[in-house]
Amino acid sequence: MKTAVVGSINMDMTVTAERIPLKGETLKGDELHYIPGGKGANQAVAMAKLGAEVEMFGCVGDDEAGQKLVKNLQEAGVSTGHIRIVKGVPTGIALITVGENDNTIIVVAGANNCVDKEYVDSIKEELFQCDIVLLQHEIPQETVEYVVDICTERGIKVVLNPAPARPVKQEILEKVTYLTPNEHEAAILFGNDCSTEELLKKYPEKLVITQGSKGVAACRKTGEILLVPARKADVVDTTGAGDTLNGAFTVEVAKGRDIESALKLANTAASLSTEKFGAQGGMPTLEEVIKEMKAYK
Ligand SMILES: Nc1ncnc2c1ncn2[C@@H]1O[C@H](COP(=O)(O)OP(=O)(O)OP(=O)(O)O)[C@@H](O)[C@H]1O
12 pairs with which residues across the strands? Predict the structure, then answer.
C-alpha cells in the first residue's frame, strides 16, 4: 500500500507575546519558534507516524528553511525524493503571532505556488504508483483539480481536505472519493441552507465533516448518519488535529477499511494529537492509537 500527499510545505514562524499588536503598534515578543508546518507536510507526517509508506509531492525554495523542512520530513519517515527545490523563490512561510487569547496568521505561499501542472506532469509516473492521494487547499486550485482529474481517471482514490476554505467545483466534488471539511469549511462550500445531516445525506460515503470536540460525522450509503463522538482529551494544543485526522483517515481507507472503522481510528488519533504541543510533534504512532482505542472501548 503506497500513499501520496500533493500539498504545501511551510515553515511556521511563531512569536508568542502577551497579546497580538494593535494596528500600527510595535510590541515586544516573548519567544520565537521555527516550526515545520504546511497542511500537506503535516498530513504526510501523520501518515508516516502511523506506519504508512508515504511520498510527499510539493515544492520548497532553495533556502535554509527549505532544507530544514525536507530533512524534517525525511526524519519523520516521509519519502521526499520528488520534492522540487525551486531556485529564486522562498519556501512557504506562515507568520504566526500567538497572544494570550488570540492569534494572527499571515501565510506567504512562496514555493507552494510552484506546485503547478508542469510540476505534476514531471512526477506523474510516481504519483500513479500510489493507491491513494491526499490533497488540501494550500496549493493552486487548478493543480488540485488537475490531480483529481488524472488520478481518478486511473482509479486512484483521492481524499480532498478543502482547507483553507474555498469553493470546490461540482464536478470535482463528484470525482473525489472523500471530501473532509470542518464545519466552517462545509458552510463555505455548501452554504448554510442545509443542516449538517441533510448535507451528509446528499453525499453518502463521500462527505466527512469534522466537528472539533464533538468528533466527526459522515453518512452510510443506506442513508444512516454515522456520528463518531470525540474521545475526551486533555487538550494542550489543537493545532494539527485536523491534519492528523485527514492523514489517519487516508491511511485507513488505503488499507481497505470501511468508513466507520477508518473514522474511529482517525478520530482517536486526532484527539491524541491535541494532548501534546505542536502540529507534527503531537501526532501519535499506530501503536499509541490502538492502545488508546482498546482502553476506551
Ligand atoms: N477538543 C477536542 N477533543 C477531542 N478531539 C478533538 C478536539 N478538537 C479536535 N479533535 C479531533 O480533531 C478532529 C478535527 O478537529 P476540527 O474539526 O477542529 O478540525 P480542524 O478545524 O481542521 O482542526 P485544526 O485546524 O485545529 O487542526 C475532530 O474531528 C476530532 O477528532
Answer: 35, 94
Binding-site residue positions for substrate: 10-12, 38-42, 138, 243
ipTM: 0.98
Question: In whole angstroms, what is the distance from residue 2 CA to residue 12 CA?
Answer: 28
Torsion of Cα atoms, 156 then 217 then 212 then 22, to 10°: 70
Domain tally, the chain: 1
CA-to-CA distance for 91 and 109, rounded, in angstroms? 8
**Best mutation site among 207, 211, 238 for ligand 1 pocket (most ligand atoms within 8 Å of CB):** 238
Binding site listing: 10-12, 38-42, 138, 182, 210-215, 237, 239, 242-243, 267, 273, 276, 278
- Each residue's pLDDT tens digit, 54-109: 999 999 999 999 999 999 999 999 999 999 999 999 999 999 999 988 889 999 99
The domain that contains 154 carries what CATH number?
3.40.1190.20
Q: How confident is the model at residue 278 (pLDDT cuts 50, 70, 90)?
A: confident
126: which residues sit within 8 A by CB, 6+ positions away?
A: 55, 57, 82
Q: How far apart are CA 79 and CA 229, in angstroms?
A: 33
Q: Is residue 23 part of a domain?
A: no
* Structural domain containing residue 211: 2-17+29-295
CB contact at 8 A, 127 and 151: yes
Q: Is the pLDDT of residue 273 over 70?
A: yes
Residue 182 domain flag: yes
- Whether 22 is in a domain gets the answer no
Which residues are known to be catalytic?
243
d(CA 64, CA 295): 43
Count the alpha carbons within 13 Å of 25 in the hemisphere toward its beta carbon. 8
User: Looking at the domain assignment, is residue 108 inside a domain?
Assistant: yes
Q: Are 109 and 84 in contact (CB under 8 A)?
A: no
Closest atom of ligand 1 relative to the 268 alpha carbon = 31
Mean pLDDT of 270-278: 94
